[in-house]
Amino acid sequence: MGRTFVFLPPLRTVSGGLAVLAAVAAGLATLGHNVRLVLRDPAAPPLALPPGLPTVGLAETGLTPDDVYLVPEGWPNALAPGLAVGARCLVYCQNWAYLWNGLPDGVGWDQLPVTFLAVSDPVARFIAQATGTLPPVLRPAIDPARFYPPPAKPALGPVRVGYMPRKNKALAAMIRRLAEARMARTGISYEFAPIDGLSPDGVAEVLRGCHIFLATGFPEGCPLPPLEAMACGCVVAGFAGFGGFDYMRQARSGGHVPSVPLRPIAWGGNGFYAGDNDVFAAGACLEQAARLWLDGGGELAAVLESARLTAAAYGPGEQQAALARIWKEPGAL
């Protein structure tokens, strides 16, 4: 195998997906691969680049047929330098909903000599449904040195709920209003903590001070904020975005059952999940999570332990092992 080129899209703000691409490039370099970052404008990188990795412009990549060229979904035009020379072009799909973004009308993936890499098992199954081929899975990683539980959660006066307003803002507001409208009848008092515009360390600090994380994002490929919340000792409630069912499992029976088959995992129920866009059910999930904290006991301890095991399965070591396996397997790329 030759070199590996990783295209970093010219986004205005640093997204989770962009950070994952940079982490993949750094991980491959750590494994001894010859890695180069491809930028549309090397003079204006879209994020702080991993140290020590050379950069090349999109117009002068120097790709050869022996090289691997990794491009995220949604940027098919960036594949052009690799397709032109017959490089092994690999599309890393981090969100199933963007699989066909950017492709011209009348052009399908079956017409292009590319292979796929999926960010989660649900995304891999979606790609298989669309293309007939099940791709390998490369999951993202969270940083355990940054996302970890506090010695103790805040005392239960109000139940403190962290959420990200940018994730389906109107629906998040509706779920919050529903919970607040029911407080007099449920006896549950909430304090909502918006997580917006913070550094990763700031996000972790807020999560450590919360009992619940309200997940309002969809569609998702393998959502990192709920994983980070689990690592910080929160019970997650809300939406899975389809891709979240790579790791999300219902804490109680009778909840939403996803249409995608669920892979075997080594943990039990780690939260309360509604069907995407179902505000009624998401409100009930939030209330179940709050009751769990207020009641305490063995059920709360079991859910928190499952959440801890879930987060531990998405560490940097697990991602490195997957990278080593995928870049070594004949025919995987």
Automatic annotation (TrEMBL):
A Gene Ontology molecular function term of the record: transferase activity
Keywords attached to this entry: Transferase
Gene3D superfamilies (UniProt xref): Glycogen Phosphorylase B
This protein's name: Glycosyltransferase family 1 protein
Organism of derivation: Solidesulfovibrio aerotolerans
Record lineage: Bacteria, Pseudomonadati, Thermodesulfobacteriota, Desulfovibrionia, Desulfovibrionales
